[in-house]
Design brief:
Helices cover 0% and strands 45% of the residues. By secondary structure, the chain is mostly beta strands. The strands form two sheets. Strands 2, 4, 5, 6, 9, 10 and 11 form a seven-stranded mixed beta sheet that branches. A four-stranded antiparallel beta sheet has the order 1-3-8-7, with no helix packed on it. Strand 4 and strand 5 form a beta hairpin. It starts with a strand and ends with a strand.
């Protein structure tokens, strides 16, 4: 059974950078879209980045709040996806999750992006504070 494990979170000062990893085991990342999500304390979960399945063209999509600061990538050989986060802000503080979609291959509107049928990781905490 596919399992996802996120890593790379931690405490960073505003303006700093982190790279999150989402490693798959027990299976491959598959052909579906993959998303990074975050949930801050007391807030709803939101999608921050999404990459299409390998059979679909197109660049990763990003939420407006992280555009030009976050970069999502995929390494099929390592069965891992990454989220490079630069110029971090206190409002980026949240638990970050990755998820692999079993049904949809293409990222849609980021404001409504979610994974209803797929695999989720357990999350990694990112705290941005001075």
């Amino acid at each position: 059974q596919l399992q996802l494990v996120e890593s790379g979170g931690g405490l960073v000062q505003p303006g700093g950078s982190l790279r999150l990893s989402c490693a798959a085991s027990g299976g491959t990342l598959g052909g579906g879209r993959i998303g990074w999500f975050r949930q801050a304390a007391g807030k709803e979960r939101e999608a921050v980045a999404c990459i299409n399945g390998p059979s679909r063209s197109g660049s990763p999509k990003y939420a407006d709040s992280v555009k030009d600061r976050f970069t999502m990538s995929r390494d099929n050989a390592k069965n891992t996806v990454y989220l490079q986060m630069n110029n971090l802000r206190p409002e980026d503080t949240a638990v970050y999750y990755c998820a692999v979609d079993q049904i949809f291959y293409t990222c849609g509107d980021m404001s409504s992006m979610t994974v209803l049928s797929g695999t989720w990781g357990q999350g990694t905490q990112v705290t941005v504070s001075s």
